[in-house]
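All the exercises in this workshop are built on plain-text protein records. An example says more than a description, so a record of this kind follows:
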Amino acid sequence: MRRRLCRRLSFAVLLGVLLTLYKSVQELPQVIMPKKRVTVNKTAPTVTVLIWWYPFGKKTKLKDCNTLYNIKGCRLTTNRQLYPVSQAVIIHHRDLGGNVNQLPAEQRPAFQRWVWMNFESPTHSSGLEELNGVFNWTMSYKRGSDIFIPYGYLYPRKREGRKIELPNKSKLVAWVISNWNEDHARVIYYHRLNKYVDIDVYGKYHQHLQNDSIFLTISPYKFYLAFENSQHVDYITEKLWKNAFNCSAVPIVLGPSRANYELYIPADSFIHVNDFSTPKKLAKYLRFLDKNRRSYQKYFDWKIRYDVHLTKFWEEPYCKLCEAVKNAQAHYKTISSLSSWFQ
């Protein structure tokens, strides 16, 4: 009996202790346990652009599109293992050379676009016929490309300048050429023009550039021969934008028609060889401009309103493609006749 009473008292005491503890716990401030943290990568790429080859086999560092052009959500890669998840695959024509056996062997995902990239002229682009019906998009200097990338362009200045600053001009005509071919129209015209006016030629088989610099070499000249290696619509290369305009030399152009040039630059910013019936008459006009400062400087009136943009190869084409993919609608096409379109 006594033992039973002791057990009851012990139980009562224990129960009292438990009730006291429960009450004290209820009065404690509530503690919220942190939920498992989920890391969200806000910069995760939304578009993967696979570069099948480094152009011309020259390995370059792939730069960030967001840093360069404020184009977010782009992943540029040469890792072919990412082919199945790439929204676009860039194929550089010069490295392909029309050999379809070098194209990706895996089946093309339904969401993926193959992009034909080429900045050479049709004259120097072989094997086009083999690529009919292969690509979804084109990326080139030619107007009408799905991704239009000219070698350069003029853009309005934020504030118009009042005075045109030109480097000191002590020389007359310069030309930089690395691929000398006597059969090219530009070399033929050079020989004819050089009979009537002195032309300083720089490049692989001629004089060396000053400190290996285009700018330092050409800036002292009043005129520059911006002669293209072949003549095709829209084929207007760095010879105009970098070698002439960026060095403040009046470009003497041999390429597509004057009307084609005027789609890109003011009519009074260049001299076209077709403006003169003979090279002799062109040479006479150059000598006139050499002696008439006011007439010469009118060729730079465009500098009051515009600045020159030089396309950055290769990051600019890559990033512009990524932007186009991001903005594209879910409509897919195939270039049925690449050869006829590009010629």
About this structure: Residues 1-41 have pLDDT under 50 and may be disordered. The longest strand covers residues 221-227.
